[in-house]
Amino acid sequence: MYENIKFECRENIAYVTVNRPKAMNALNMDVLHELYDVFTKIEDDSDVRAVILTGEGRAFVAGADISQMNQLNAIEGRQMMTMGHKVMNLIESIEKPVIAAVNGFALGGGCELSMACDIRIASEKAKFGQPEVGLGIIPGFGGTQRLARLVGKGMAKYLIMTAEMIPAAEAFRIGLVEKVVPAEELMTEAEKLAKTIASKAPIAIATAKTAINNGYDMDMKSASRFEIETFTAAFGSDDKAEGMAAFLEKRQPEFKNR
């Protein structure tokens, strides 16, 4: 179905793998369009409760495809960045939780792709960075915005302005990733996390993601009101009835797919 990504679903988990290992999984327009298409399908698939996004070979995604970008004028470059933002915003906003299993280099657009995910688990061999200023540009897939929100303005400026590449341990220290594991355990840990999340109430998971994402940039009073509204939506769901009944009956809940 796709030329540049692998896609499969098993046990309520969707697996998306960027598959251009000879190009270190660099993001070109074809990859961006395929990612947009697959995540649109995932959003509409009621059987999917969690997503794992990773890369084939030595890289997660080693950046945008410079050989393609070098041929673009400013207008065409803007079109590519606009498509990149569409992909990142879609991944960030879909109701399904998305886990980045960062297996290797996550540079430039790859770092930005990981930041669009909800949770990042990194191999000890992973490397992160935003090297764009060395190429005469700046991050263009949301990096100047998401990086600052994850690690703070000062650290974001440091990483972007120096183009420094950092190891997984440092990425964990500054809050760019949530967990670092041995390389051989990466997918096992990602699957364990995905299965844990998939076992919870789908409506509650989706509502929690929406509440966190939308409330993050609100003032506290507005965010509190938003939380009350999203809580109310979850409280009126079949998931709530099943979850509380299971708790009182001392059994495992049986949540239905959305």
Q: Number of helix segments?
A: 11
Poorly predicted runs of 5 or more residues: none
In this structure, how is the largest beta sheet organized? 6 strands, mixed
Determine the CATH superfamily of the largest domain: 2-enoyl-CoA Hydratase, Chain A, domain 1
Q: How far apart lie the N and C ends?
A: 25 Å
Strand order of the largest sheet: 1-2-3-5-7-10
Shape verdict? globular
Beta-strand content: 15-25%
CATH architecture descriptor text of the largest domain: Alpha-Beta Complex
Supply the helix-strand structural class. Answer: alpha/beta
Query: CATH first level of the largest domain: which class?
Result: Alpha Beta
Report Rg. Answer: 19 Å
Counting structural domains, the number is 2
Number of strands: 10
Helix fraction by DSSP (H/I, runs of at least 4)? 40-55%
CATH topology of the largest domain: 2-enoyl-CoA Hydratase, Chain A, domain 1
